[in-house]
Each structure stands twice: as C-alpha cells, then as structure tokens.
Design a protein that fits this description.
The protein is of the alpha/beta class. Helices cover about 40% and strands about 20% of the residues. It is built from 12 helices and 10 strands. The protein has helices at about 1-5, 70-75, 100-115, 125-140, 160-175, 180-190, 200-210, 210-215, 220-235, 240-245, 260-275, 295-305, and strands at about 30-40, 40-50, 50-55, 80-85, 120-125, 145-150, 195, 200, 250-255, 275-280. The protein has an 8-stranded mixed beta sheet with strand order 1-2-4-3-5-6-9-10, sandwiched between helices.
Length: about 300
C-alpha cells in the first residue's frame, strides 16, 4: 500500500547537454543527470533516449522517479526529460518556502533550457498537468504541444465549492494533526486507488496509523499538504489565452477516474473547449503500475499523435 501511495511529487548547459549533477545517487544506465540553478534553488533532472524532446512533469509529491517506467519505454523514440521539482527528491527548496504555479512553470522552462532545448512536447499529470496549462498560457514558445492528464482544476466543476471545502479541511489538519495524517485524509477524500485498486477506508487509515514507520515512509507529503495542494486546487486555467497562443492541448483521463474529482475535469475541458480527449487504462497514477504500463504508454503514444 505504501509503495502505491508514494507515487502520489539558470545557468544553461554547454554543448546542448546537461551538466553532471553532484548527487551521490548512482545514475541509471543510459541516463544523464544534470542540474540547473534557478530562482534561488538547484533543480536536478534526468535525460534519456534520443529524438524529439518530451518533458514529463510529475504530480503532487512526485519526482523524476515517478515516470521511470514511462521514460524507459519512450526513450527509443524520444529524448525524455524528467526532473525533481523544487523541494522534492534531489532538488532544493530554500526558505521562505512558497509554492507558486507561475514559478513552477518557470522551473520547467529552466530545466528544458539546461537540457539543451528551447521547446518540447510536455506531458503533465495531476498538479503537473496544471503546471503544463500554466506553461501553455505564460510560456507558449516552450510548448510544442501539451498533454494534460487529469488536471485537478476544481474551479471548473459545478460542485467546486464543496470540494474546495474538503481540501481546506485537509490543509487545516496538516497544521494541527500533522501532514502525514492529513495526507491520508486527502487520499480518502479524493478516492484515489491505493489499496489493491481500491480507495482508502477508515480501516486502512487506522492500520497505517498503528505503524509509525508507515507514516514516515510517505514522501514529500509535508510540502504537498501545507504548500502545494491549495494553489493547485484553486488554479483556473486561462483557456482563452491558451487558445490564442496556439498551443495544441490534449486532455487525458484514466478509464477508472471518470467519476473521480481529479478525473472529471478532463472530459469537461475537452467538451467545452473542443480539445481532443484520450482515455488511458487504469486510474490517476497507473503510469507507475507495471501490470498496465505497456497499455498506458500505448495511450500516451496515441495522445502524442494528436499534437
């Protein structure tokens, strides 16, 4: 269960390739690791493969490792760029800590430039999709096409106020009862499948709380609950400006997410704005599940062909 939960995270390089990072982690075979200093922090990124650049933006609490299965399968056809957002994984996040969607978009542009590219196709899931939408609005020159997979742009939903109230309760609990316990409440609220494909139950939560080590293994949840969750949930994309910028956008949604908070937005955006919609197998984080990854990547390839 914990491994499933964990799925939930400028100087330019010379010669068009990333500078090698000083991180002590052993790099994977065929992966070049670089770093870029931007707006007071150092971001770490990985580059693998060959061909047209494709940059993957992770969702909340995620880092570059969240897309390892996807990147390995796309590397023969694309130059795949993954990265650790500020405050996650190998990247830094200096005080004062403040999560701002515009800065997150600028971070992606900085990573892309440090990897040696002016523009790329962008894939983002969850909060990564929100960042992608902000890029399409504010940095269209860096986006040759965007796939926004289940962007939690709650404000476009008819029951947005009720959902935002639920998120506000999670946020308050993050400061009063601890971010780990608040994160469990968040997972239950959004009904994310984390337990053999099923959402968390009160019994699951009680069992996790009985094991202090389980809570300690939840990665990056403090930053997510206290800083990232509300800015993402309160974001409303400027769709008119995105269209005026001429950025091609494809919406994506998991077949098991269509009735969930984080999945209902994609079909709505696609229908209202005349964007293509691609259905993926599985749910919100099935890109990290070995048993469906090949089918999931096939859907991603189909989405890329729409751009």
């Amino acid at each position: 269960m914990i491994s499933a939960i964990s799925v939930l995270g400028a100087g330019l390089a010379t010669g068009g390739r990333p500078r090698m990072a000083s991180a002590q982690a052993t790099p994977q075979v065929g992966v070049q690791t670089g770093h870029v200093a931007t707006e007071g922090d150092e971001l770490v990124f990985d580059v693998r493969g060959q061909g047209e650049p494709l940059l993957l933006i992770p969702g909340g609490t995620g880092d570059a490792s969240a897309y390892s299965l996807v990147a390995e399968r796309l590397a023969p056809a694309y130059t795949v760029i993954t990265f650790d957002p500020r405050g996650y994984g190998r990247s830094t996040w200096r005080d004062p800590q403040n999560y701002e969607i515009g800065q997150q978009a600028r971070d992606v542009v900085a990573v892309l430039a440090a990897a040696g590219y002016d523009a790329a196709r962008i894939f983002g899931s969850s909060s990564g999709a929100v960042i992608g939408l902000e890029m399409a609005k504010s940095h269209p020159q860096a986006v040759t096409g965007l796939i926004a997979h289940e962007p939690p742009v709650i404000r476009i939903l008819t029951d947005a106020e009720q959902i935002q109230t639920g998120f506000a309760e999670v946020y308050l609990r993050g400061w009063t009862d601890g971010p780990e316990r608040a994160f469990l409440q968040f997972l239950k609220f959004i009904q994310l499948p984390v337990n053999d494909g099923q959402p968390l139950t009160d019994e699951d939560i009680a069992h996790i709380r009985e094991d202090p080590d389980s809570l300690k293994r939840l990665p990056n949840v403090s930053s997510f609950v206290r800083y990232e969750m509300l800015p993402v949930a309160n974001y409303k994309p400027d769709v008119q400006l995105i269209k005026e910028n001429g950025v091609k956008v494809v919406l994506g949604v998991g077949e098991l997410s269509l009735d969930k908070i984080y999945g209902r937005t994609a079909p709505l955006l696609a229908e209202q704005l005349d964007y293509p919609l691609v259905t993926f197998p599985g749910h919100h984080t099935s890109y990290a599940e070995p048993d469906v990854i090949d089918a999931w990547v096939a859907s991603l390839r189909a989405a890329l062909r729409e751009l």
